[in-house]
Amino acid sequence: MKLGKYAKLGAVVALSSLVLTACGSKDNDKTAGNVVNWDESGELPGMDLSKATDQISFTMLGNTMEGLYRIGKDSKVEPGLAKKTEVSKDGKVYTFTLRKGTKWSNGDKVTAQDFVYSWRRTVDPKTASQYAYFFNGIKNADKIIEGKLPVDQLGIKADGEDKLVVTLERPIPYFKLLMGFPVFFPQSKAAVDKFGDKYGTASKYMVYNGPFKLEGWTGTNLSWKLQKNDKYWDKKAVKLDAVNYKVNKSSTTAYNQYKSGELDASPLSNEQAKQLKNQKDFVEREGAAVAYLQFNQDSKDATMKAAMSNKKIRQAISMSINRKSLSKVIGSGARVPKGMVPDKLANLNGKDFVEMDPVVNGIKHDDKEAKKLWSEGLKEIGQKELTFSILGDDTDGSKKITETLQSQIESTLPGAHVTVQNVPFKTRLQRCDTGNFDTVISIWGADYADPISCLEIMESTNGQNAGHWANSEFDKYINLSRTVDANNPTKRWDDLVKAQKVLLDDQGVAPIYQQASAWVVNPKVKDLVYNAAGLNYNWKNAYIEK
Amino acid sequence: MEEKLKLDPASFEPLPKADDLDNEKIAAPSLTFLQDAWLRLKKNKGAVISLFILIVMFVVAFGSTFFISHDDLIRSAPQYANLPTKIPGIDINGLNGKLKVAGEWVDIYERNGVPSDVHFILGTDYLGRSLAQRIIYGTKISLIVAVAATFFDLLIGVTYGIVSGWKGGKVDTFMQRVIEVISSVPNLVIVVLMLLVLKPGMTSIICALAISSWTTMARMIRAETLSLKNQEYVLAARTLGESPHKIAWKHLVPNLSSIIIIQTMYTIPGAIFFEAFLSFIGIGISAPQTSLGVLLNDGQKSFQFLTYQMWYPAIVLCVLMISFNLLGDGLRDAFDPKTRR
Amino acid sequence: MRKYLLKRIFYMILTLFLVATLTFFLMKLMPGTPFTNQQKMTAEQIQIVNEQYGLNKPIWQQYLLYLAGMVHGDFGTSFQFSNQPVSYLIASRIGASAQLGVQAMIFGVFFGIIIGSVAAINRNTWIDTTATVLSIIGKSVPNFVLAVLLQYYIALKLGWLPVADWNGFVYTILPTIALGVGPLAETSRFVRTGMVDVLNSDYIELARAKGLSKFGIVYHHALRNSLIPLVTLIGPYTVALMTGSMVIENIFSIPGIGEQFVKSITTNDYPTIMGVTMLFSTGLVLVILLTDIIYGIIDPRIRLTGGSGE
């Protein structure tokens, strides 16, 4: 009989616990005013801008913080905290006058000192910032990061509360663009000291000076909110009350939430993208990364070295790749590349870099020409056939790519035998570093919206140039852009266009696709700025059409 | 009142000698334990149907090896991508190449310009590969994983249980502690650790199952061995100086067979579920190989548009699991004397 | 009893120690570092980070530090989040998982008992057959398939419940069902079998002879005795719920520990993997111990002598 009572009790407890949790439920706060519900694919890892390493962190930082500039539509520089900027004739000294009366969310004034503090904190080797290399070019930055100079030798000085003087080692033509990237934003020393170890690990352990404040982020949870910041200097321009972020790791769930109206945007998987690409809320977003094939011209194997150093063989391999069908295989994650520099990454006076002198060589598909070059090339190196491997990552997507390349190359080039090696990401990097590959698929994402970010990696001295392709003409153009033509935008672009032409004419690498992503976005969300490089989303001026 | 007992003198005649023996005869043919179980199993309709389904699945899955090569699995035909079911001669919406697009039935085959003699019984996947072929291949992989798990279950579990129960004493205590330690680690954790060390794929799934799945079997076998050990016939064999190996093989294993068979029937669906689960969360079998878990994961990605791509593998997986469960229940009832009625 | 408990606890600690050791050395075999951007860092920076994570010390020292830290509930810093201790990550995520797990367990066991009892009472009728068929199906349909179907049909097509998220009770209903159907099926089969046995026994005959109502018999006698063995199922259920949480939390975007575990596997976040592994193992070991104790209390026939020995 006793258990009878227990059973009764158990049932009561069970039911009441259900009811209690029901009472404790909060209402979804999405109904109020101008609020957008946005999808994110992963957690927000951290808000310490000296330590952030990923796009989600940078996006949140970019919207909750304000630097000297903001990056607007088409990577245009828009005014931020800098009211006036003076550049010295040689382009090496920048004097910024800060806007008066801007405040942190705790009421403190934002001063030039905050910039100095922030920059020094980032380059301090003790901080171990993975983005400290961005400071390369600012006076003494490299030496400080290596621990050879103290942090106060960094080329940044505060002149009073609202004047900031930055000294560079060489002119950086895209310096203003860099200033829109969160790594260069100010930080409040008072906040960093106050929160100590916890600084930037939850929304309450931070102070903000941007258009929005971060709320509801516990450091590890799956939802947070960008709430309009009333202390922001340009708060009139901010039309949204809040942006609710929700993390969905499954794209099916995200899309279901979009369909049920719980989200205003959802990223799409390949399959979803294929089904939805004709709908009007379908949006394709270009990525800032291009994947390319590197040829090991410094292989330990003499035959391989000879083969990969042979221009005709490199060209034959590149021409046998049908990039259109390859990007179809990859799906919404890829589009046909327009060169080594991604499409929609950078423009000068409204003209996209890829349209300056459209590249044809080096990315075209021509089976006939490929066959011809292949047999000529083989003759030149005295071989009848050639077996080489393609090294790639071991992800499903990468496997598809290597397999497709394998079948395209083998079916086009007589006597070509391609083996495929799919290894973990870190192993691939290590094998690139040690030159233990024949050809490798590398992916490089532009750090900022300037073509140099994608081209300098092919300089003969650059560590990313795993194939050791060396071309003095290419190096010359890159160098010209940095020195003689640094302060002349038109000429500088001309240098970069030529550099890319040299690279692709000589087939130093073979670009194979440009990264992209497909979304469905509520068409009522207007004026949201998306840029491929640097800061992805800028919510400052976004609004919902009524 | 008295009833006169009429006795016929003939009643006192002795019966013929031959009939005498017949009385002692058992009418039904004498049956071994297994035959007996089989008879009882046959009465269980669900179990028989399940057995039949499973046999068909095994034959089709493994027989397909000769018809579906690895190349067929990775060869893509983009022009045939995402075609729904089309069975020639059947004109029911959903089975005739038509799919509901925005509320209307559209003939996808016609829209995509697929030649009229091309048809896929279960449709195609996103790369235009026949879903039927992939499901058969996936079933094969799932069954291989199941068979391998069973093999280790038998090899390790049965041996371990017999040794532990037979030796007794300190050895037994120690071996039981080992089992306790292994079974108090969630088997998923073991699998994950294995997958981290080995490369994700069939080998590591099988290895992980081999490590974690045999403990239940070992426990049951040990308990049964303990009681069998003291049976007269085993004692007799021992006294006669039979070697332990021979005793184990001749006396123990046959008597343990019912437990072994029943337990195996529960190991198999567990293993199949595990493989599907791991592949579904992306740490199991990976492309270009396929399994039911991989197909389910691929299918759920486009479930909003092409429901069949998840429904078909899901149905196959469920039928497989149901059949093993039903057969397991049937076998348990057949072998368990308690339910004999 | 006390001696038995002490012995059990000793073995528990031994188990956890073995798991910790094994995990640690397996993780040390793995390639990879805490950095996503190692190529772009200077040697000086890398050295400093290695010191921060204690990666510059010899392995055996790292091992001892790891064990010492673990005793204090310190599993190190997650590689995925900057500056976030694994212990905090687990603490902030465990609530949702626990709630989901407990709800699923209650849901499964509660309805399992009801369905199982009803089936047993109406043995060999269509009710029994339906219950049996349903429980076989419930046992055979993987929970991740069920979750996808529930989300699509119930939440999106019918619009009865939210698709995903974790914002109150209504958000927990679908994941609870998806996760709880397995235990429900198992419980109902178990209860049915147990109750059929009990209903055939002599004391039930006696109760019937005394003129007790059918409900009274079931409620007062049969249910009690057929429920006791259910306690032994709590251990396996816990394992099933832990496993299930990984995929259910992912599908319904629940901020729990299971989906985080999957993510740390795919992103090689070793400290988190180790932390969650230890958490799961500790949880299971405790549940097994507890069920053994409870079983000993409610069923005096079981003597608490030595482990699972005869």
Automatic annotation (TrEMBL), chain A:
<dbReference type="InterPro" id="IPR030678">
    <property type="entry name" value="Peptide/Ni-bd"/>
</dbReference>
<dbReference type="GO" id="GO:0015833">
    <property type="term" value="P:peptide transport"/>
</dbReference>
<dbReference type="InterPro" id="IPR039424">
    <property type="entry name" value="SBP_5"/>
</dbReference>
<dbReference type="InterPro" id="IPR000914">
    <property type="entry name" value="SBP_5_dom"/>
</dbReference>
<dbReference type="GO" id="GO:1904680">
    <property type="term" value="F:peptide transmembrane transporter activity"/>
</dbReference>
<keyword id="KW-0813">Transport</keyword>
<dbReference type="GO" id="GO:0030288">
    <property type="term" value="C:outer membrane-bounded periplasmic space"/>
</dbReference>
<feature type="domain" description="Solute-binding protein family 5">
    <location>
        <begin position="76"/>
        <end position="464"/>
    </location>
</feature>
<dbReference type="GO" id="GO:0043190">
    <property type="term" value="C:ATP-binding cassette (ABC) transporter complex"/>
</dbReference>
<dbReference type="Pfam" id="PF00496">
    <property type="entry name" value="SBP_bac_5"/>
</dbReference>
<protein>
    <submittedName>
        <fullName>Oligopeptide ABC superfamily ATP binding cassette transporter, binding protein</fullName>
    </submittedName>
</protein>
<keyword id="KW-0732">Signal</keyword>
<comment type="similarity">
    <text>Belongs to the bacterial solute-binding protein 5 family.</text>
</comment>
<keyword id="KW-0653">Protein transport</keyword>
<feature type="signal peptide">
    <location>
        <begin position="1"/>
        <end position="22"/>
    </location>
</feature>
<keyword id="KW-0571">Peptide transport</keyword>
Automatic annotation (TrEMBL), chain B:
<dbReference type="InterPro" id="IPR025966">
    <property type="entry name" value="OppC_N"/>
</dbReference>
<feature type="transmembrane region" description="Helical">
    <location>
        <begin position="141"/>
        <end position="166"/>
    </location>
</feature>
<feature type="domain" description="ABC transmembrane type-1">
    <location>
        <begin position="139"/>
        <end position="328"/>
    </location>
</feature>
<protein>
    <submittedName>
        <fullName>Peptide nickel transport system permease protein</fullName>
    </submittedName>
</protein>
<dbReference type="Pfam" id="PF00528">
    <property type="entry name" value="BPD_transp_1"/>
</dbReference>
<dbReference type="InterPro" id="IPR050366">
    <property type="entry name" value="BP-dependent_transpt_permease"/>
</dbReference>
<feature type="transmembrane region" description="Helical">
    <location>
        <begin position="310"/>
        <end position="331"/>
    </location>
</feature>
<feature type="transmembrane region" description="Helical">
    <location>
        <begin position="266"/>
        <end position="290"/>
    </location>
</feature>
<keyword id="KW-1133">Transmembrane helix</keyword>
<keyword id="KW-0812">Transmembrane</keyword>
<keyword id="KW-0653">Protein transport</keyword>
<feature type="transmembrane region" description="Helical">
    <location>
        <begin position="47"/>
        <end position="68"/>
    </location>
</feature>
<keyword id="KW-0571">Peptide transport</keyword>
<dbReference type="InterPro" id="IPR035906">
    <property type="entry name" value="MetI-like_sf"/>
</dbReference>
<keyword id="KW-0472">Membrane</keyword>
<dbReference type="Pfam" id="PF12911">
    <property type="entry name" value="OppC_N"/>
</dbReference>
<dbReference type="GO" id="GO:0015031">
    <property type="term" value="P:protein transport"/>
</dbReference>
<dbReference type="GO" id="GO:0055085">
    <property type="term" value="P:transmembrane transport"/>
</dbReference>
<dbReference type="GO" id="GO:0015833">
    <property type="term" value="P:peptide transport"/>
</dbReference>
<comment type="similarity">
    <text>Belongs to the binding-protein-dependent transport system permease family. OppBC subfamily.</text>
</comment>
<keyword id="KW-1003">Cell membrane</keyword>
<dbReference type="GO" id="GO:0005886">
    <property type="term" value="C:plasma membrane"/>
</dbReference>
